[in-house]
Write a structure and sequence with these properties.
extended; three-stranded antiparallel β-sheet; two-stranded antiparallel sheet; 25% strand; mainly beta; 1 helix
């Protein structure tokens, strides 16, 4: 049989986070989201210029918050 090559890693694996900032009004407007301090969300800027941000749901109905845990189990928020 023919040996299959492994698929390349899924995007954005291999990229680095180069900045963390608040989403801009223009970015929120492009998503159709209100721009107010109540709807703030952080944006992760990747090494290729792409931006990742949290949404309230998978339909993109509003801004969301980024949460995480450190390798020692401590909780944190991004922003």
């Amino acid at each position: 049989g023919v040996e299959r090559q492994p698929e390349p890693p899924a995007y954005p694996l291999g990229l680095s986070i180069v900045a963390v900032r608040t989403m801009t009004a223009a970015e929120k407007e492009a998503e159709g989201w209100d721009h107010s301090y109540l709807n703030e969300t952080s944006a992760l800027v990747l090494s290729d210029g792409s931006v990742i941000y949290a949404s309230a749901d998978y339909e993109g109905n509003g801004a969301g918050a980024l949460f995480g845990r450190t390798n020692t189990g401590e909780r944190f928020t991004v922003g």
